[in-house]
Structure formats: structure tokens, C-alpha cells
Design a protein that fits this description.
- It comes from Gomphillus americanus.
- With 497 residues, the protein is an alpha+beta fold.
- The chain has a domain at 240-458: Vanillyl-alcohol Oxidase, Chain A, domain 3, CATH 3.40.462.20.
- The chain has helices spanning 2-14, 21-39, 51-58, 79-92, 143-151, 168-171, 179-182, 210-216, 252-265, 309-312, 326-329, 337-340, 360-374, 391-399, 427-442, 470-480, 485-489; strands spanning 44-45, 72-74, 95-99, 115-119, 126-129, 134-137, 155-156, 189-195, 201-205, 226-233, 235-236, 240-247, 271-280, 291-299, 318-319, 322-324, 344-352, 381-389, 412-421.
- Strands 12, 13, 14, 15, 16, 17, 18 and 19 form an eight-stranded antiparallel beta sheet that branches.
- Helix 2 runs antiparallel to helix 4.
- The longest helix is centred in the N-terminal third of the chain and has 19 residues, at 21-39.
- Bound molecules: flavin-adenine dinucleotide and 2-acetamido-2-deoxy-beta-D-glucopyranose (3 copies).
- One 2-acetamido-2-deoxy-beta-D-glucopyranose (NAG) binds at residues 261-262, 265-266, 307, 310.
């Protein structure tokens, strides 16, 4: 415990400016004292025994982030509160973190040791305007909560495919089951309220601060400011035809081929899939009980036609397809799956071209499969997910003004690798396993010219650098964070890679 905390503190100081370690530690409590007097004790919790403090620091999908102890947690209820918080943190020279849903697995992206944690969880105001069909939501709550709110109007917003994920998803692009029709979550942004690192509260849209708007459309969270309100184009939410197909791993090659065919040839924007291959820690047996293939198939409409025939014809062991409402869709395969999978989780991402001409996704699958077999016992769960990016998605992005990824025309495919490791593992083994998993992912080349997906990336993959807009984003980062307040005092994506 001690050596780990010490190591992480050293890493932390290495990334902060001139002030010595002791000044850094004292600055957290100083910021908290100042905030307690300006915001009041019910918005600033410093006691580690307070139930709110315990819950907010527990609530990370990568439970390693729960080991850090912020000097205090601030619960703003307005953009003014966020502005006051940033100014006080800056004046004290403290570390800080901005937390929405707490699902980003990377260290110090939404967690902080000895500094101020700004938890946006109490900002949950939502509204719907039936004349304009625009929806607004604040950053608090999960996408499940947000979808539930808008369903009273038979509408939804483009957001997470799993109910439990938080709104930070949108700032990393945001891939939804509806993306084939409407583009990424950011493509439906119409106006954002942003608290800049200076503390100024501004509006960003296609006409007001358009550069800031561009950067916030997928250029990463906690980089240019804090988004306190999203105004987005809402979308109709009716009856879906959706479910999971589960196959034995012996069918891996056929299912992979079907995923490739769907990515290359599906032209129905209402049809969406994720293919997930999972390996558990259970030892290999003759029945392959340690592994499974779980397909998520979602059609926006009551009848999918032939869209999924290439998957159903492969005779899955389990088929839960049927008509569902949107809340049921985002709770597949079972409700609370986001909460259940909390643990020592780390993500990595890869990208490959159209499977009709680029077999990189299969090479990456084979590398992952071989690694998992060779490293039994080092993980509780490992998975690789296949996420096709359709031409209809990139077209929908373009017609709405494009986004910070400047996505080249589909089809192409993002892969998400997950490793969940046992909490009992020694820190030395943990680090060795992470490095080995990283080397496995790096052993297969990504397709050049395609962006890595921020939401699935490990910090060391420097995904922003793969964007064709990287130079522009670097310039905008300097403009909106001119003295490097965010760059030096909170975690997040590297703009200097
Ligand atoms: C189980 C699971 C399912 C997922 N499914 C999807 C999916 O379907 N589609 C997809 O695109 N991604 C998905 N992801 C990835 C997910 O988008 C990222 O993990 C994302 O970072 C989560 O956002 P959050 O609010 O939960 O996390 P947080 O860790 O709280 O936030 C993520 C980052 O954004 C910053 N941030 C958050 N809110 C703001 C704000 N208002 N202003 C400024 N900065 C902010 C935080 O500081 C942090 O750095 C999934 C992840 C998990 C674990
Ligand atoms: C590893 O780090 C964790 C978290 O800080 C700590 O609890 C544990 O004692 C450390 N183990 C070793 C062997 O250093
Ligand atoms: C994939 O497409 C090829 C032809 O392009 C076909 O031969 C094959 O049967 C298809 N596989 C699946 C599983 O759909
Ligand atoms: C299914 O695979 C066949 C090739 O066997 C392909 O022609 C067809 O377009 C595919 N359909 C979909 C919806 O992916």
C-alpha cells in the first residue's frame, strides 16, 4: 500500500510545476478551506468518513482509482459553482480532477490524490423543447438516467450503449447504437455551456466560440474547460428489435467473418452491432467454458429485415433477440452490467480499415487470443470488442459539421481491448502483466490515417496524435488553457506527444 501510494505521488509531482512536494500537498487543503467558506459546508466534503465522500470515491469503474484520497470533494450545482471552484483551485495551486460518471480507467483522469475532486453528480437538470426538438442535459447522472428522462417525450439522445456510463463519454466522441443514423454523440451537439480554465462561463456553438465548440466535439474531456450543459438534437425512440447472441468460442472464425461482412457490406443505418469475445480466468477445459462470444445486435425499428441474418444463421447457443424499448436495449445483456464489472480494469484501443481489404482486425484478434491462452491466471477477464464504423456514420458526422476526429469515410473498425486483473496480484506482477498486454496490442499495426478512439484508449496510446486535426487541437488547447492550469494540475490526454 505504502510503496504504491509513494510511487503514485512521485509520478504526480513529476508532472507538476516548480512548487515542491510539500507545497503541493498543503495546497489541496488550502483550496478546500477557501471553497468551504465560499460555497458552504454542504457543497464541500472534506471528511473521508462522510457517506458522500465514501460513495463518490468508491464510484469508479476502474476500482484502482478508488484508492486515491482527495483533500475534499466539491459538489457544484451550477456553472457559477464550477467557476468559483476552478478559481479557488488555481489560486491555491492545488491539483484537481473533474468527475462525471467515473468510467475512464486512466489514472488521474477523473481521480485525484491530495487535491480537489469536482464531482458533477449533483448537476442533473434536463429539459426538452417540443417545438425545436432540442434536448438539454447537465453532466450529472448516467446515460441510463438521461434516456429515462427523455423517454417520457418518446425521444432520446445519442449517448452510451450501456446505461451505467457517464456523460464524459460525449466529450470523447461517444459511440452509440444510433450512430449509424446520426453520427457520434458529439455530432448531435448544438450548444455547450463551458466554464473555461480562467473561470469564465461561455457558450460554444457553430456560431459562438466555434473553435471551442469544435474542440469539445471529441477533442477530449478536462482539456479546454468544464462542460456544464449540453444542448443536443434529440432523436425519436420507439420500438427496437435487439438482443444478444451467444456462441461457443469454437465458432470464433465464422463469427469474426460475419463481423467483417457486416462492417463491409451492411448498408442499413438502423442496424448496429458490437461483437465481444470474452475470456475468463477459469482454466481451459474440453468444453471451452472459459470463453464466449457475445454479440450485441440492435435495430432501430420493430423489424430488422435481413440485417442480422449472417449472425443468426450461425446457430448461436443463446438468442435473446426480440422487441425492446430503448432502456431495455441499453441494459443488455443484464441490468447493472457496468456496476458488476467494476474492478482493476484497463482499456486499450486499435483501429483497422474496411475488412474487405484489411485483415488487421483478425491479426489483432489472433494476438489477443494467443496472449490470453499464454497468460492464464494473470487476469480475471479479458475481452476484445469489435465496433464497426459505417459509412452512414461518417456521412452523418459530415452533414452535421464534422467533429474533432475529422473521421475519414467508413467503413472501418475500432477494437477495444479490456483486461481486468485480480486485486490480489502483487504490484510487481500487475505492472508486468499490464506491460505484456500493452506489447500484445502494440504488436499489430493500426491502420494509418484513422483516428484512435479516445473513449477506449490508454493514456500511453496518445490518441489525439492520431487525429488529422491534432495541430489545430494543440493550438486551441493553448488558447483556452493559456497558462497550462489544466495541463499541469489535472490528468488527461497529452497534447505534447
Ligand atoms: C462499461 C463501459 C461501457 C462503455 N460504453 C461506451 C459506449 O457505448 N460508447 C462510448 O463512446 N464509450 C463507452 N465507454 C467509454 C466511456 O465513454 C469512457 O470511459 C468515458 O470516459 C466515460 O465517461 P464518464 O463520465 O463515465 O467518466 P469520467 O471518468 O468521469 O469522465 C471521463 C473524462 O472526461 C472528463 N469529463 C467528464 N465530464 C466532463 C465535463 N463535463 N467537462 C469536462 N471534462 C469532463 C473527466 O475529467 C475524465 O477525464 C464505456 C466505458 C465503460 C467502462
Ligand atoms: C500494492 O499497491 C496497493 C495499493 O496502493 C497496496 O494496497 C498494496 O499493499 C501494494 N502491494 C505491495 C506488495 O507493495
Ligand atoms: C462472408 O462473406 C463471404 C463473401 O464475401 C462469404 O463467402 C461468407 O460465407 C460470409 N460469411 C459469413 C459468416 O457471413
Ligand atoms: C451477409 O454476408 C453476405 C456474404 O455472404 C453479404 O453479401 C451480405 O451483404 C451480408 N449482409 C449483411 C447485412 O452484412
Amino acid at each position: 500500500m505504502y510503496s504504491f501510494v509513494l510511487c503514485s505521488c512521485l509520478a504526480l509531482f513529476a508532472t507538476t510545476e516548480a512548487a515542491g512536494p510539500l507545497a503541493q500537498i498543503a495546497s489541496g487543503p488550502a483550496a478546500c478551506a477557501s471553497l468551504t467558506s465560499s460555497l458552504g459546508a454542504n457543497k464541500v466534503i472534506s471528511s473521508q468518513l462522510n457517506p458522500n465522500y465514501i460513495e463518490t470515491t468508491y464510484n469508479y469503474w476502474n476500482s484502482k482509482q478508488s484508492q486515491y484520497t482527495p483533500s475534499c470533494i466539491v459538489y457544484p450545482v451550477s456553472s457559477q459553482d464550477v467557476s468559483i471552484s476552478l478559481k479557488a483551485i488555481k489560486a491555491a495551486g492545488s491539483r484537481f480532477a473533474i468527475k462525471a460518471g467515473g468510467h475512464n480507467p486512466n489514472t488521474f483522469y477523473s481521480s485525484v490524490e491530495d487535491g480537489v475532486l469536482i464531482s458533477l453528480e449533483k448537476m442533473t437538470t434536463r429539459s426538452y423543447d417540443s417545438k425545436t426538438t432540442l434536448a438539454t442535459y447537465q453532466p450529472g447522472g448516467t446515460f441510463g438516467d438521461i434516456y429515462e428522462y427523455f423517454l417520457q417525450y418518446h425521444r432520446t439522445v445519442v449517448g452510451a450503449r450501456l446505461a451505467g456510463v457517464g456523460t464524459g463519454l460525449a466529450l470523447g466522441g461517444g459511440l452509440s447504437f444510433l450512430s449509424g443514423q446520426y453520427g457520434m454523440a458529439v455530432d448531435s451537439f448544438r450548444e455547450l455551456e463551458v466554464v473555461l480554465p480562467s473561470g469564465d462561463i461561455v457558450t460554444a456553438s457553430a456560431t459562438k466560440n466555434p473553435d471551442l465548440f469544435f474542440a469539445c466535439k471529441g477533442g477530449g474531456g478536462n482539456a479546454y474547460g468544464v462542460v456544464t450543459k449540453y444542448t443536443v438534437q434529440s432523436r425519436p425512440a420507439g420500438t427496437f428489435y435487439a438482443g444478444n447472441l451467444i456462441y461457443a468460442l469454437q465458432q470464433n472464425n465464422d463469427v469474426l467473418e460475419a463481423i467483417g461482412n457486416f462492417t463491409s457490406y451492411n448498408t442499413d443505418p438502423k442496424a448496429s452491432i458490437i461483437g465481444t469475445y470474452e475470456k475468463l480466468l477459469t482454466p481451459e477445459t474440453d468444453f471451452n467454458l472459459d470463453s464466449a462470444i457475445v454479440m450485441f445486435l440492435v435495430y432501430d425499428g420493430p423489424d430488422p429485415g435481413k440485417a442480422f441474418d449472417n449472425f443468426t444463421k450461425l446457430n448461436p447457443l443463446i438468442n435473446t433477440m426480440g422487441q425492446k424499448n430503448y432502456l431495455e436495449v441499453v441494459n443488455m445483456p443484464i441490468p447493472l452490467s457496468t456496476q458488476i464489472t467494476r474492478g482493476y480494469n484497463i482499456f486499450r484501443v486499435a483501429v483497422h480499415g474496411d475488412p474487405a481489404s484489411d485483415q488487421g482486425f483478425i491479426a489483432h484478434y489472433n494476438a489477443w487470443d494467443a496472449w490470453c491462452e499464454a497468460n492464464k491466471g494473470d487476469y480475471v477477464l479479458s475481452s476484445v470488442d469489435f465496433q464497426p464504423i459505417a459509412k452512414s456514420l461518417t456521412d452523418a458526422s459530415k452533414t452535421q459539421g464534422g467533429n474533432a476526429m475529422n473521421m475519414p469515410s467508413g467503413p472501418w473498425i475500432w477494437l477495444n481491448f479490456l483486461i481486468n486483473t485480480p486485486p490480489t496480484q502483487s504490484n510487481g506482477t500487475y505492472n508486468a502483466v499490464q506491460e505484456s498486454f500493452r506489447d500484445m496490442v502494440n504488436s499489430v499495426q493500426n491502420k494509418a490515417g484513422l483516428p484512435l478512439f479516445l473513449n477506449d484508449a490508454n493514456y500511453d496510446q496518445n490518441p489525439l496524435k492520431t487525429f488529422s486535426t491534432y495541430r489545430k487541437l494543440q493550438t486551441l488547447k493553448k488558447r483556452y488553457d493559456p497558462d497550462g492550469f489544466f495541463a499541469k494540475h489535472t490528468g488527461g490526454w497529452n497534447f505534447n506527444a
